[in-house]
Design goal:
The protein is an alpha+beta fold. The chain is 32% helix and 23% strand.
Length: 65
């Protein structure tokens, strides 16, 4: 479950690499060390190949900008 993945021990992190398979969302167990690393990862995306999971809606909007 995603909520287990972003438990208190990882609450300081905002972004994880993610992928969707058969309707399920999977997260890389290692979070990005900072917001800039998550944004850089997202910018390196080839269409549809890279997904980013954000801890909050505001962080998702930040990354999308």
């Amino acid at each position: 479950m995603i909520s287990d993945h972003i438990s208190d021990k990882k609450s300081k992190y905002n972004f994880w690499a993610a992928w969707v398979r058969r309707g399920d969302v999977y997260l890389n167990p290692e979070a990005f060390p900072n917001d800039n690393a998550g944004s850089t990862y997202l910018k390196s995306a080839k269409s549809g190949e890279i997904n980013l999971f954000a801890r909050t809606r505001s962080k998702a909007e930040q990354a999308a900008r």
